[in-house]
């Protein structure tokens, strides 16, 4: 897993984008209120743009005073002018809460994924799922480009760092390279992205290089016995 994040200012704000290794992402620009990326999938010629914006969108709300409809007219007009439509969602209907006890609790759908018609034609089965995040009052938006299950039906073996890897000089080189390649400041989210990148590269190294070395050693043992 790779990622880029803009750190929060105190207890408010902050943006984060995560993506899998098979996606080629180039950072175009960012600020406290946006992240702009160009995205290209592996083995694909199509390149598209992802722009995450931290602002006040039109929202569905539960609890608290109602927002005047005229406040968000400019936002709705901007979506219409850009030809963007809401992808909808799966999961909880709200993406933010003020975390106040009842009866002062407020829930709102502040976060959404809006796409162009051209993007929808590229990914007709795309979907959005609201995911709970313990460290934030916002939910994360998981955008899937294909209609595939979020979680596998069988439990995979948990990943573990092997102590034997420390005996190889390549291990330190891989960690240093992975840590330096991953985008993102040294925040909690950035550190998590760096660790995920190291884990992916170490797993690949273990399955390819170390497995091949082990096979060569077994061949030498057989030749020695012969």
From TrEMBL:
InterPro entries: Endo/exonu/phosph_ase_sf. This is Uncharacterized protein. It comes from Sesamum radiatum (Black benniseed). The lineage of its organism: Eukaryota, Viridiplantae, Streptophyta, Embryophyta, Tracheophyta.
């Amino acid at each position: 897993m790779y990622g880029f994040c803009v750190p929060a200012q105190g207890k408010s704000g902050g943006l984060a984008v995560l993506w899998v290794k098979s996606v080629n992402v180039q950072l175009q620009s960012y600020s406290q209120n946006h992240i702009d990326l160009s995205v290209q999938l592996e083995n694909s010629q199509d390149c598209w743009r992802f722009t995450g914006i931290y602002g006040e969108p039109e929202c569905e709300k539960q609890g608290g005073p109602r927002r005047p409809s005229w406040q968000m007219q400019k936002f709705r007009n901007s979506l219409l002018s850009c030809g963007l439509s809401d992808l909808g969602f799966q999961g909880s209907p709200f993406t933010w809460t003020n975390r106040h006890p009842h009866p002062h609790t407020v829930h709102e759908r502040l976060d959404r994924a809006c796409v162009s018609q051209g993007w929808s034609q590229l990914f007709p089965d795309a979907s959005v799922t609201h995911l709970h995040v313990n460290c934030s009052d916002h939910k994360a938006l998981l955008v899937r480009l294909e209609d595939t299950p979020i979680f596998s039906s069988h439990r995979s073996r948990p990943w573990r760092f092997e102590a034997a890897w420390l005996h190889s000089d390549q291990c330190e080189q891989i960690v240093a390279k992975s840590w330096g390649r991953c985008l993102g400041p040294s925040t909690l989210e950035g550190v998590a992205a760096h660790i995920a990148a190291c884990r992916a590269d170490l797993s690949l190294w273990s399955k390819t290089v170390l497995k091949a070395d082990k096979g060569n050693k077994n061949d030498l043992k057989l030749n020695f016995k012969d």
